[in-house]
Structure formats: structure tokens, C-alpha cells
Input
Amino acid sequence: MGQEVVISTETTKKIREIAIRSAPDEDCYSSKLYFGHVLSLKDKVDYLFIPRFGSNHPVNVGCPKFLGLAEVLESMFSDLPPIIKPYFSRAKGGHKTYHLLAKAFAIGWKFTKNPIKIVRAIRKAIQAHKQHKDELVIDEEMLHKWERSEIYLNDEPIAQEGERPLKIALVGHSYVINDDYSSLDMRKKLKEHGVDIITSEQMPRDLIEKQMEKLDFNMYFDYEREILGTIMHFQETGTIDGIVHMIIFSCGPDSIAGEMAARFNRRNPNVQLLQLVLDDLTAETGMNTRIEAFTDMLRRKITKDAIHIPTLRVSEVRV
Ligand code: SF4
Output
């Protein structure tokens, strides 16, 4: 609609420093980083767009912290530009698709009084979102091709001569595993250790749903369904060498999914699980050591399959 969109950069050391200085101490590490992103953008824009997106499912929801971000920021910092903060939740607000379209239209109306322009922009956004999802989430056939090492889903691993790449599921919130700084460059580290990864957000949705049906309660946090469903699927099939679960410190939903994953894994240690807890004090050196040790053990397991390796739970690495 003729407006320039300024997107915050990937997380940097400076953003992290602003975040730690400004965010409430008790917030999870990801929320703190969000504060850092907003504050580093505030002087570059006329509006901030911080949607209060609750859910796109009749029952399951996203994290409640997402809903509060805009208001918490507004109440803490008086010098922010106006915040565009549409609220949408199928689960809690009973909202339907037309609510979403009406909210999108109202946002467009701020910038142009031409309804055709707004409708075109909405249609383009919906198409772009669908295309992104279609490219990201794989189907079962692609998953089996990846398991048979016929394709890579992410960067090609750097394996030593004569070694086969390890197959590992990298599991966690998308805003952590796709952000080099907050994940301590986990994708690159795994690639350099000869690991071929699949991420939890790439997993076929029907396989995740099948796993969730096996629980005797409804795991109603969307992200945790994805995380736990991925872990449970691979623990059941045993088609990969290991799972790396990145947990954000003081994340409530993650602490439930993480504990359940660890218990399932103790009962059925089919695939080794490494759980890493990240916060603003996590040391990269400690993380490197743990990844190196984990991949070494997986390789030893390949060569001497009889070795029993217990589930590793690495608590916060602090300096
Ligand atoms: S899901 Fe967890 S990590 Fe994400 S914002 Fe909520 S509490 Fe923080």
C-alpha cells in the first residue's frame, strides 16, 4: 500500500544488551529479546506492528505472552510510536476468518482510503503466507526420502571422509532455532559436526497430530504440540540418530513439553535426546562442548551399537 516496511534484523549482541537492560527480569529469554528488537526499531518507524495473535485453532492456543507484548511495551515505554495491535483468537475470542479480514482491512484503512488497494494487499499477504507454509512444511513422502538420505532439507552437512552424516531433529520454537544469535548458531554447529537436520517446524502436520492423540490430555499450546509431537514421532520410529531440543529458560509451555519429552525418552530411549536450556547467561563454549560430546557419542553408538547412552539433560550453562 505504498508504505515502507522496516523489519527488525536478526538478533545481535547489541539487541541482546538492550533487551537485558530493559525487559522485566522474570520474562522468558525470547520475550526479553523481543523487547530488544522493538526498542532498536522504535526510532526508525512511524508505527510498530505487534499483533496480539492468540490462535488459529478452535481450541489450541499460542503463548499468552504474545498477547500481552504490545500492552506491556506500551505501559513501560512512553516514547514508542503508536502500536498497531490487532487481536485475533479463534480459541478464546471465537473469531472467524471474517474477523481477520476485517482487522486487516482496518489496518489498511490507516494508510489508504482506496478499498481495492487494501483488498489486493490482503490477498497478496494470504498468498505469500500460504506459499511460505507450503514450502516449509514437508509431507510424509519427503520425510521418508530425507530418512533414506535421498535429499537434504537444510544445509548440506560437512561430514569427515568415510563418515555418514548423522541425522538429527532440531526441535524448538521457530524464533529460536531460526535465529543464529539466540540459538547460539546451532544450525551451523550441527552442520559443521556432520549433522543432517530436520526441524520441528518442517514436520508433516498429520504425524504430529497422530502423536498428540496418544496423550491422555490435550496439549493445547501450538508450539509445544509441534515440539513434543516431533520428539514422540522419532522416539517411536527410531529412524534418526538423535534429537536436540532447545528450551528457553523460564518458558512455561516449554517446561511442560520438555519434562514430558524427557520422561518418554527415559521409558523408551530409542533415539538419544539432548535438551539444552538457553538464557541470557548461556555460554557458547559450554554449548560447543555439549554438541561435540553428543555427536561423538552418537557416532560411537553407530560403530558399537551395544553401548547404552542415557538421556542427557543439560541444565543451564552459566558463567
Ligand atoms: S512460548 Fe515460551 S519462549 Fe515463547 S514467548 Fe511464550 S514463554 Fe516465551
Remarks:
- The mean pLDDT is 92.
